[in-house]
Amino acid sequence: MPEKIIPDIVVGRLPIYLRALPRMLEEKRRVTSSQELGERLGISAAQIRKDLSQFGEFGKQGTGYSIDYLAEQIRQILHVDRVWDMAVVGVGDIGSAVARYQGFSHRGLRVAMIFDSDPAKIATQESSFTVKDTKTIKESIHEAGIQVAMIATPSQVAQEVAEELVSAGVKAILNYAPINLTVPENVRVQYIDPAIHLQRMTYYL
Amino acid sequence: MPEKIIPDIVVGRLPIYLRALPRMLEEKRRVTSSQELGERLGISAAQIRKDLSQFGEFGKQGTGYSIDYLAEQIRQILHVDRVWDMAVVGVGDIGSAVARYQGFSHRGLRVAMIFDSDPAKIATQESSFTVKDTKTIKESIHEAGIQVAMIATPSQVAQEVAEELVSAGVKAILNYAPINLTVPENVRVQYIDPAIHLQRMTYYL
DNA sequence: TAGATTGTTAATCGATTAACAATC
DNA sequence: TAGATTGTTAATCGATTAACAATC
């Protein structure tokens, strides 16, 4: 039975829907509609219904969606109804900010390990972690069964770090280095580069 | 004369093209083709040619594109052939990492001012900046004529900070707080939220 | 000249929106 | 019941790709 292929652009919107739902709960809302959610997010109601309907029927005619239930369903779809251990490579400004960030654990992710190649940093304490030598990436990550990693190294070494991570079994990489990575097609990469986002806006200034 | 409207998705790819070009120069390349650039970026050659042709004719049949010339043209299109001053609001882990980041200036941007509301931080030194009181946002930013800002505050105050920035004349906001902002339609917002990118990948794990 | 690669058009593909029957 | 809102289909819209004449 061939599994239905969901467009990547639809998958990409699910985390945005999911992020909004706990905020609505905080406001003591219990039920929402595609229209209300759409207005908050600047997305059309039709699109939200269409996206969600790819995965099942989560709403009730006349009433809308139970916020709690919808959030739980999206968590399951995205596999964040569990917690994924992550490795961070590069303990510079960004790497340590990420290591200290408290916001991941509610969202199905957690930093479990950090690496650097600088002898002055290796074996020191950073947040609640002892910095490991990047030379041990393959062994440590493989042993821990970690599949998700963030690269926060200088651009020059990002590609080789990526290859090391892949050989250790990593399947999802979030890259903070401002460079395009080449990885096998069964590995996913996402990029965070503030300058890219900013240049996208300066066009309109 | 109505100016041609360029799709936002095309504008969004220009910074990606631009980022790759100086790297090619470093490798002593002087000329490239849509095919070569496309292979590096995982984008089709036809799309790159189509995108660029929206803005002019930058290549030569049979030869390709002069890397130097193309980069300069894209910089002009994106208005990063100058340097934009930016304000950073929130001097936590992310805010200070951004304030210290050296990579903006080559790309047409520069942090010029940082703000926090914590009395323990106001007037202290952070990187090369003296932290200003968020209460002075409107006055300081307006006086400096700053149009670009980054929000790196807790989510709870991000919306009100955004409104303050807008009233000070800011037209482009990069938001690190994991929350959707509501702004007037002449103001652009881009979001950076690592958890969103990560959840987009855990779907496939 | 022969080979390569652009810029552009037309064809294809895919995503978004509008509309509405079903139904809570 | 009347009103509201879903899930889904068909229509529209927009983006990507293929193909090729032009030309360096």
Question: What are the SSEs and their pairings?
Answer:
The structure is a homodimer of 205-residue chains.
Chain A: H1 8-26, E1 31-32, H2 34-41, H3 45-53, E2 59-60, E3 64-66, H4 67-78, E4 84-89, H5 93-100, E5 109-116, E6 125-126, E7 129-130, E8 132-133, H6 137-144, E9 148-151, H7 155-167, E10 172-175, E11 188-191, H8 194-202
Parallel strand pairs in A: 4-5, 4-9, 5-8, 9-10, 10-11
Antiparallel strand pairs in A: 1-3, 2-3, 6-7
Chain A binds a DNA duplex (24 and 24 nucleotides) through helix 3 and strand 2.
Characterization of the model:
With 205 residues, chain A is of the alpha/beta class. Chain A has two domains: 8-78, Arc Repressor Mutant, subunit A; 84-197, Rossmann fold, CATH 3.40.50. Chain A is 42% helix and 19% strand. Chain A contains eight helices and eleven strands. Chain A has helices at residues 8-26, 34-41, 45-53, 67-78, 93-100, 137-144, 155-167, 194-202; strands at residues 31-32, 59-60, 64-66, 84-89, 109-116, 125-126, 129-130, 132-133, 148-151, 172-175, 188-191. In chain A, the strands form three sheets. In chain A, strands 8-5-4-9-10-11 form a six-stranded parallel sheet, sandwiched between helices. In chain A, strands 1-3-2 form a three-stranded antiparallel sheet. In chain A, helix 1 (8-26) packs antiparallel against helix 4 and helix 2 (34-41) crosses helix 3. Chain A is elongated and about 60 Å long. The termini of chain A are far apart. The mean pLDDT of chain A is 96. The interface between A and B is large, with 56 and 56 residues. Chain A binds a DNA duplex (24 and 24 nucleotides) through residues 7, 9-10, 33-35, 44-47, 49-50, 52-53, 57-65.
